[in-house]
Amino acid sequence: MLQRIQTVYLLIITALMVSVLFLPLASIQVADTFYTFDATGISAVSTQTELVYPIWALFALTSVIALIALITIFLYKKRVLQIRLSIFNGILMVGFYALFAFFVYNLKGIMKAEDVDVTFKIALSFPLISLILDYLAIRNIGADEMLVRSLNRLR
Known about the structure:
Blueprint: H1 5-22, E1 26-30, E2 33-38, E3 41-44, E4 50-54, H2 56-73, H3 79-105, H4 107-111, E5 116-120, H5 126-154
Antiparallel strand pairs: 1-2, 1-5, 2-3, 3-4
Helix pairs in contact: 1-2, 1-5, 2-3, 3-5
């Protein structure tokens, strides 16, 4: 199971997406108030952190991406299913960025302010890195499937 490079790729995807759940994706400044944007929602940064606007869809999507990558690791005997799940996972990662862009686009309405300053954090690049690793995993799983099929032809 851990002998194949695609398993390492999928394990890194899982670790990156789990870290996206807990790290802030962006910092938001509205006038003199600071907010953090993470997978659970937009929280006010003050002495006590309070959730101002919950975004559970982003949290659920990130959790599903990490869970599918983890499940895909253990399906190493079913390579075609592994490829299909990895492709679906890649589509979900693109959907993560679409959902994030939707919420950032609607920030002015959410914050009820005209001047909203958004600063993106490094954790926002983790799904992109995961998407690249997902592509590499798909290529290596496909190469394994081609190798097995060519060996079956020789028998």
